[in-house]
Inverse folding.
């Protein structure tokens, strides 16, 4: 199929892009990588009156050290996120997740900001943003604001972005001393969206779990932060029995929807198995990073 007719514009500054978004009559939609929007337009699931192409806004493509966090521009491609030395060193969970997105061609074109704005509940980068947690900087002609990732994703493919706003950058906290991370997903074929994905960060001090962060993707309408579920496991000795108990607790707390193709019981079992694998890997990496 072909998309419905639309007006195309390609601004050469962020200010010009914001002007297009500020005009409510324009019906403008931003496009950068187009890896999600273009197929939706071809299937007539989306029919924007105007496409505003951001690819000339190279000032939005960067990875910077921002003290206790990494700041990454919204136009940074998935492959650049996965391969950037700063990301691999200071935010390995993000690098691990970005490397699993789609196929090579998709990672070359898709962008960090586009993935977050699209808000697919099974996508990797929204899950990492919620788990760490990230701060999302957005712009409009009215000014800038910062939205915590926990408040950004409202429902499936629905975010707190207003029609006249674009994502400028995202701040991800750096990994701590003695902290390891791991990202695991299960899909039908390599490159498909995850049926279940798990992101985990574990810090170990003196043989005990000092800090624990864990999120699930593909289970609910938005990525789910399970901080409340796992809070009681902090302070316990880090070992195989701890991993099994924590994974079972997360699986028990998960509330997957029944689906004719993927029954809820199957998805819940995937949550348990993948959480166990992610925690084991994160513990191993935490021990490797011990001071």
């Amino acid at each position: 199929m072909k998309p419905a007719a639309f007006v195309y514009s390609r601004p050469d500054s962020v200010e010009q892009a914001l002007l297009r978004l500020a005009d409510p009559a324009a019906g403008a939609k931003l496009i950068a990588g187009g890896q999600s929007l273009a197929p939706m337009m071809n299937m007539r699931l989306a029919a924007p009156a105007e496409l505003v192409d951001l690819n000339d806004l190279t000032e939005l493509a960067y990875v910077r050290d921002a003290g206790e966090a990494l700041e990454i521009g919204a136009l940074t491609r998935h492959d650049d996120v996965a391969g950037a030395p700063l990301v691999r060193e200071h935010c390995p969970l993000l690098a691990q997740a970005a490397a699993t997105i789609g196929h090579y061609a998709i990672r070359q074109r898709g962008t960090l900001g586009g993935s977050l704005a699209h808000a697919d509940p099974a996508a990797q980068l929204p899950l990492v943003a919620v788990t760490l947690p990230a701060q999302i900087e957005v712009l409009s002609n009215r000014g800038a604001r910062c939205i915590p990732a926990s408040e950004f994703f409202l429902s499936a493919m629905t975010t707190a972005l207003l029609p006249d706003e674009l994502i400028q950058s995202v701040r991800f906290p750096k990994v701590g001393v003695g902290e390891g991370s791991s990202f695991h997903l299960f899909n039908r074929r390599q490159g498909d969206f995850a049926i279940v994905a798990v992101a985990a960060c574990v810090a170990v001090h003196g043989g005990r779990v000092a800090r624990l962060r864990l999120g699930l993707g593909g289970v609910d309408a938005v990525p789910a932060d399970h901080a409340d579920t796992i809070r009681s496991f902090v302070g316990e000795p880090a070992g195989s029995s701890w991993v099994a108990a924590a994974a079972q607790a997360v699986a028990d707390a998960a509330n997957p929807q029944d689906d004719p193709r993927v029954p809820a019981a199957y998805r819940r079992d995937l949550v348990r198995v993948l959480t166990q694998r992610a925690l084991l890997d994160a513990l191993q990496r935490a021990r490797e990073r011990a001071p």
